[in-house]
Amino acid sequence: MKYDALSRNTVKITLSEEDMLEYSLCTESISEKTPQSKAELVRFLKKMNLFEEYSPERLFLEAFPKNDGGCVLYVSNLSEVIEEELPSSCENGCVPLICNVKSLDVLIKLCTGIRKLFPEMPSSAFSRDKSYVLVIEAPTKQTGRILHFLSEYGKASADKSEYSSLWEYGDIICAERAVEKFALLA
Q: What is the spatial order of strands in the sheet that 2-7 belongs to?
């Protein structure tokens, strides 16, 4: 087992097949995201002394099976979202979230993940300074969770000035439904 702190409130845990057996974890049940599977993961985290002071409702857990029978877990504590990171809502009640990624391949993977986890959110894509930028209009109550997800792929931000500058200095690639369109390329 190996774990890395990706940020002050996100940990990546890589488990081998032996680790999965030792902790009685099953990749299929973890990926179902049922209350029972989340409870199993919380028990596992407590054994590792990670996020033990937080309730399961305040943890965002993502599991990705590996070909060797193991699993990669991403665990984020949603209680630590800093309020100044979250801008006030736009006119439509959503917050524009930005993710700057280095390559088209990463943008496609990001869009595929967003489409699965957060379907049907307005989105657009830009190119700027030899990189790609995805903008998602997220419901205010999901902003923290989505920011955590975006940060796994690139530089995530909720900065309104950065959002505004995209329209002025960026080149628009896809004005609407970018997530759905780029996910189809996977």
A: 2-7, 10-15, 71-77, 59-65
